[in-house]
Amino acid sequence: MKEKIMVVDDALFMRKLISGMLKKHDYEDIIFAKDSVEALTQYQAHHPDVVLLDITLPNESGITVLNEILKLDENAKIIMCSAMGQEKVIADALRKGAKDFIVKPFQEERLIRTIASITEQ
């Protein structure tokens, strides 16, 4: 059975795009959140195996959500997603405990390979 994945992104089209990529690779247990509040609620309710977390969110930044999830679960496997040009933010996220990052727009194979690598750790 494939891992439970939570996708946190405020853009509906991005959530749908990522969901389509995941489903093509037999990831069926997918949870969605559109903002920081929903992300924390969904994490606590579902305890996903991997979180794909956008850096730019309404209410709180993805870095804040990263910190809050890691307070709930220090073993959380979080992959940050960002647009080009956010290298400092990505470096900060990795220092704080993110397992990896993917730069948007990302390729499907890179996404799947990153998830597989994180879940094997």
From TrEMBL:
Gene3D superfamilies, alphabetized: 3.40.50.2300
Residues modified to 4-aspartylphosphate: 54
Keyword ATP-binding among record annotations: no
Domain Response regulatory: 4-119
Keywords tagged on the record: Phosphoprotein, Two-component regulatory system
InterPro entries: Bact_response_regulator, CheY-like_superfamily, Sig_transdc_resp-reg_receiver
Pfam families per UniProt: Response_reg (PF00072)
Keyword Phosphoprotein attributed: yes
PANTHER family named among the record's database cross-references: PROTEIN PILG, STRESS RESPONSE REGULATOR PROTEIN 1
Protein name: Response regulator
Record lineage: Bacteria, Bacillati, Bacillota, Erysipelotrichia, Erysipelotrichales
